Amino acid sequence: MKIEVINKKPSVVNQFLAQLRDVNVQKDRLRFRRNLERVGEIMAYEISKALDYRTVSRNSPLSDFDSDELVTSPYLITILRASLPFFQGFLNIFDEADSGFIGAYRKSTGGDEFDISLDYLAAANLTDKQVIITDPMLATGRSLVDAVRLLLDKGTPKHIHLACVISSEDGVSYVQEQLADKNLTLWTAAMDAELNDHYYIVPGLGDAGDLAFGEKL
């Protein structure tokens, strides 16, 4: 599995990440969602460099010209609910893409332990498609691994791109171990070193879903 960490090089994505993490900026829910969307747009651009292109002849008012254009739009998959603003950033760039949706949440099994419940899937046949799965926080990696395995029931993609805003080192290692035989690339805007006792990324940014849409029961 190939891993791309976007913030290893200086760019404006670091400014958006800093605002996403900042507890004072987080109080502005609209700005939090917009920053997730902006990071999605930047990551979509980076992933676009790895997709397939063809040369297309077009006409300007003065002459003919050739343009490199996508052979086909990638198929976008998002994991509800925290990913919606991040996902919108990808839709802004891949504006002709078809989309699928997965419902996932942590289901407590007692104490700090939990299972991942995937209770909703809407997706087309994914055979031979370039698939991008968006999920802002890669903490333990379990929900992302389960989502990939669930999607493979819908066919075998040409390539799977996993797109996250912040990932933990432990979560990335788990994904590498569990999906070692799959043709995929993990893209993350930032990589953090730790998970706390509640399996949240540290420093991370907190609960992305609650910050974007409000607390849930």
Could you characterize what this model shows?
It is a single chain. By secondary structure, this protein is an alpha/beta fold. The protein has a single domain (2-53, 68-213), classed as Rossmann fold (3-Layer(aba) Sandwich), CATH 3.40.50.2020. 30% of the residues lie in helices and 35% in strands. It is built from 6 helices and 12 strands. Strands 1, 4, 5, 6, 7, 8, 9 and 10 form an 8-stranded mixed β-sheet that branches. The protein has a two-stranded antiparallel ribbon with strand order 2-3. The model has no long low-confidence stretch (mean pLDDT 93).
What can be said about this structure in brief?
This protein has 6 helices and 12 strands.
What labels describe this entry?
Rossmann fold, 12 strands, alpha/beta, two-stranded antiparallel sheet, 30% helix, eight-stranded mixed sheet, 217 residues
Helix % is 25-40%
Count the domains.
Answer: 1
Strand content: 35-45%
Q: Tell me the CATH topology.
A: Rossmann fold
Based on helices, strands and strand pairing, what is the structural class? alpha/beta
**C-alpha Rg (nearest Å):** 18 Å
Oligomeric state as shown: single chain
The CATH C-level class name: Alpha Beta
Number of helices: 6
Query: Overall 3D geometry?
Result: globular
CATH architecture: 3-Layer(aba) Sandwich
| Count of extended strands | 12
